[in-house]
Amino acid sequence: MRRVVVTGIGALTAFGQGVDKLWQGLINSRSAIKKVTKFDVSEYTSQIAGEVTHGTAENEFNPDSVLPPKDQRHTDPFAIYGLAAAIEAVEDSGWKPESDEDRYKTGVLFGSGVGGLKTICDNNTNLQASGPRRVSPFLIPSCIINSLSGQIAIKYGLWGPTHACVTACSSGTHAVGDAARLIMFGDADVMVAGSADATVSPLTMAGFVQLRALSTHYNDTPELASRPWDRNRDGFVVGEGAGCLVLEEYEHAKARGAKIYGEIVGYGLSGDGHHVTSPAPDGHGAIYAMTQALKHANLNSEDIDYINAHGTSTSVGDETELLSVKKVFETNKSVAMSSTKSALGHSLGATGSVEAVICMNVLKYGILPPTLNLDDPIDPNFNFVAKTAQERKVSAVMSNSFGFGGTNSCLVFKAI
């Protein structure tokens, strides 16, 4: 099987545009969660989010840096966010296909949880108010989830596999893992892989409010709301953004002298077959995904130094993930695990690829980002990297994502 390495990374998060803003925010224990500004939330029981704020200030995102204003009008925000992350990652990688063979051997695989939901909502409003002639001719190409992969391929003239992945909150991790397999099996030499979601929108938040999944007790102190594994957690906080990794066959990367962040050595996936929103109480799906990832990586649980957890700050989800991790890592008493959603919120389909980007910097710098707001942990003896970053030697890391529908995915990265 061909080896797959990461040669470029990019991100757009509530901390702003770029991986550096994300990383500095995390390791300095800052929270990007604040009161929602994109729409009126006065009637919502949850009024906070890790939103991507548009503008030209230091920690804001300027869409004009990605697309001209005329193109933005018929492009859903999720695709604009994904393009921003992809542009950074591709430029970081230094890969520029020039021959036809290079183009056919370079592909794109981007995922999303909800895709162009804002575009759908806006056009439905126009339809109800003014009739079908007020629906945009760009509605369908703008809202379909695979349109983002297509836009990235068009921008860079890529002719390889152009694919999409939709598995709720596991979309990003599945996208990276599936893209790696396309390289392993020879369908591509390079893949631009990641995910994006623009989920701070009226309908998305209303749906999660009605599901009673969101935090409602911290509207006046947003930075305290996302608190994975803390006894006072009361639900997750919506986030949004995008993450992207350029994956490359190892010999291909080495031949062109590319810098290498790490190697994807394991990928595991499973289903709970239990409930559409709740994980199986015994954690069997998560356990299987993690053990399969370790098996494919040819590693033991003792070889993993750090886990970037799903860790959403929900009552049932946090308990089940911890139970699962303890079973898989029963003999590894030194493993550390943190949830970066404590700083960013949960960006749904985007979260897995953003967290994979974070794992690349964990390998690069040997710094573990903290779990914020962990005042009263459900297990005081477990190393959740509480409140402040920890420095340690890191050789291998794991990243977990679990989504509605009982879908589970896990990646293992190794230093090289």
Overall spatial form: globular
Number of strands: 15
Q: Distance N terminus to C terminus?
A: 17 Å
Structural class: alpha/beta
Give me the secondary-structure topology.
Layout: E1 4-13, E2 16-17, H1 19-27, E3 34-35, E4 48-49, H2 69-72, H3 77-93, H4 100-104, E5 106-111, H5 117-130, H6 139-143, H7 146-156, E6 162-165, H8 171-184, E7 190-197, H9 202-210, E8 241-249, H10 250-255, E9 262-271, H11 284-297, E10 306-308, H12 315-328, E11 336-338, H13 341-344, H14 351-365, E12 367-368, E13 390-391, E14 396-403, E15 407-414
Parallel strand pairs: 5-6, 5-7, 10-11, 10-14
Antiparallel strand pairs: 1-2, 1-8, 1-9, 3-4, 7-8, 9-15, 12-13, 14-15
What report would you give on this structure?
By secondary structure, the protein is of the alpha/beta class. 34% of the residues lie in helices and 19% in strands. The chain has 14 helices and 15 strands. Strands 1, 2, 5, 6, 7, 8, 9, 10, 11, 14 and 15 form an eleven-stranded mixed sheet that branches. Strands 3-4 form a two-stranded antiparallel ribbon. A two-stranded antiparallel ribbon has the order 12-13. α12 (315-328) links the parallel β10 and β11. α11 crosses α12 (315-328). The mean pLDDT is 97.
Structure described in brief:
This protein has 14 helices and 15 strands. The chain is of the alpha/beta class and 416 residues long. Strands 1, 2, 5, 6, 7, 8, 9, 10, 11, 14 and 15 form an eleven-stranded mixed sheet that branches. The chain has a two-stranded antiparallel sheet with strand order 3-4.
Keywords:
15 strands; 34% helix
